Amino acid sequence: MTDALCPADPVPRLEAIFRAIASSRMAGVAILNPALEVEAVGFRRCGDDWVGVLVTPWFMSLICLPDAASASETPSRPIQASGTKREMALPSGAYEFLSAHEDELGPYLTSSLFSPMFEFPDMAQAREVAAAVLAEVFSLPEPDAAPVVRPPVGLVARLEQPVSRRGFLGALLRPGEKT
Fold first, then answer.
1. In the 3-class helix/strand/coil scheme, how is 23-71 assigned residue by residue?
2. What is the C-alpha to C-alpha distance for residues 170 and 69, in angstroms, rounded to an integer?
3. What's the CA gap between 119 and 124, in Å, rounded?
4. How many CB atoms lie within 10 A of CB 76?
5. Which one has a higher pLDDT value, 1 or 144?
6. Are the CB atoms for 137 and 91 separated by under 8 Å?
7. Rounded distance, CA 73 to CA 101, Å?
8. Within 10 A of 166 (CB to CB), how many other CB atoms are there?
9. How far apart, in Å, are the Cα atoms of 46 and each of 123, 128, 143, 156?
10. 3-state SS class at 85
């Protein structure tokens, strides 16, 4: 990957690539929520990478984009085939990601939060949930807490039965309330 493919701020390029995917490969697919659009939310530097949430009409995922300087393969950072699981340490703990690749973007990591996106009535709510996820992911654990390996963020709702996806979404939007 060259600097042209992953500039200092990868957000404009990421959004342009996924908007092109929305209007080509995803055009007319039944899982699209017409109330939503492509938007990168809260991307920030995290070590040598950029981490944030990508909202599209068909999914919301935590995304990790390697910086142009760290995108090439090294012994400590091998390039993995798409679909390979990889653990990534973030301030709140370790999370499981899948490796992915888009020709115009190069390799990146993704951790699914929601798919499909029909539970979101508009972009404002999708942005609010994305911001809540990022606040949690970038929060520091309690000083005496043991390190924890967390499942993909979207999987948490499925593991804590009997909370529905709607209940999980509601909990993100109304912290502190029991669902």
1. HCCCCCCCCCCCCCCCEEEEEEEECCEEEEEEECCCCEEEEEEECHHHC
2. 39
3. 13
4. 6
5. 144
6. yes
7. 14
8. 11
9. 25, 21, 20, 23
10. strand
Residue 13 belongs to what H/E stretch? helix 11-23
Per DSSP, the three-state class of 147 is coil
* Tokens, residue 36: 């939503």
The two structure tokens encoding residue 68: 């142009």
- Count of C-beta atoms within a 10 Å radius of residue 169: 20
Q: Which helix (H) or strand (E) holds 21?
A: helix 11-23
Angle (nearest 5°) at CA 67 between 1 and 5: 35
In 3-state terms, what secondary structure has residue 115?
coil
Q: What's the whole-model pTM score?
A: 0.73
Name beta bridge partners: 70: none
pLDDT tens-digit series, residues 56-87:
999 999 999 987 544 444 434 455 667 789 99
